[in-house]
Amino acid sequence: AQSVTQLGSHVSVSEGALVLLRCNYSSSVPPYLFWYVQYPNQGLQLLLKYTSAATLVKGINGFEAEFKKSETSFHLTKPSAHMSDAAEYFCAVSRKNSGYSTLTFGKGTMLLVSP
Amino acid sequence: GAGVSQSPSNKVTEKGKDVELRCDPISGHTALYWYRQSLGQGLEFLIYFQGNSAPDKSGLPSDRFSAERTGGSVSTLTIQRTQQEDSAVYLCASSLVASGGRDTQYFGPGTRLTVL
Predict the structure, then answer these.
(1) B49 interface with A at CB cutoff 8 Å
(2) Which of A54, A89, B23, B70 could lock B75 by a disulfide, CB 3.0 to 4.6 Å apart?
(3) Which of residues 18-47 of A touch B (CB under 8 A)?
(4) Residues of B in contact with A30 (CB under 8 A)
């Protein structure tokens, strides 16, 4: 069975600082991994996904994530935080079934950005 | 193009009443998913549709929950005899195909259900 652990329910950074949101996964098979962002009162928007191609994945809004099999991690980073990055971020692993998949999400990390 | 839409955006109901939540997926998307987002449980998978059939209902929490999809498009999630623990945001997602894990699921804005 697949599972995801996000370390830190809240992360606070200053505008312009590095953003690092941690995600570790557990999977018995090579995983597909996703990062989604949720702004207040909105649905989830895909930031990026890893599907076994390049281990460094670039997404929207300057975010990127690196798949590290040895560490079972898929941490999300952005070199310089912007006020508009304040939102909740979810890491997810795809649970594979016969011909389809469903997502198993972490508990989420709220990113707070201060001026 | 238009994204996934859900209605109503907010629903307040009394304990014991039935509610219906609607999802309009992106046109042409064959796969449709329902998830529930609650404070205590986070985001949980409820049910998956491929076309009009639901091969995976494993996430439905009780037999009070049911869902259908008609014409390979609109889906309705029905909760009968609502309980306070059903209060949550219900999210719908769709994807073009169900390609064994690679497909991107596009989410709607959700329906916030409050059971008094």
Answers:
(1) no
(2) B23
(3) 32, 34, 36, 41-46
(4) none
In chain A, what residues touch B103 (CB-CB under 8 Å)?
A: 101
pLDDT category, B96, cuts 50, 70, 90? Answer: confident
| Residue B9 pLDDT class (50, 70, 90 cuts) | very high
Q: What is the tens place of the pLDDT at every residue in B75-84?
A: 999 999 999 9
Residue A78 phi/psi, 5° resolution?
-150, 130
Q: Is B84 helix (H, G, I), strand (E, B) or coil?
A: helix
Q: What are the φ and ψ backbone dihedral angles of A83, each rounded to 5 degrees?
A: -55, -35
> Does residue B1 surpass a pLDDT of 60?
no
**Could you give the angle at the alpha carbon of A90 between the alpha carbons of A21 and B85, nearest 5°?**
135
Answer yes or no: do A43 and B109 touch at CB < 8 A: yes
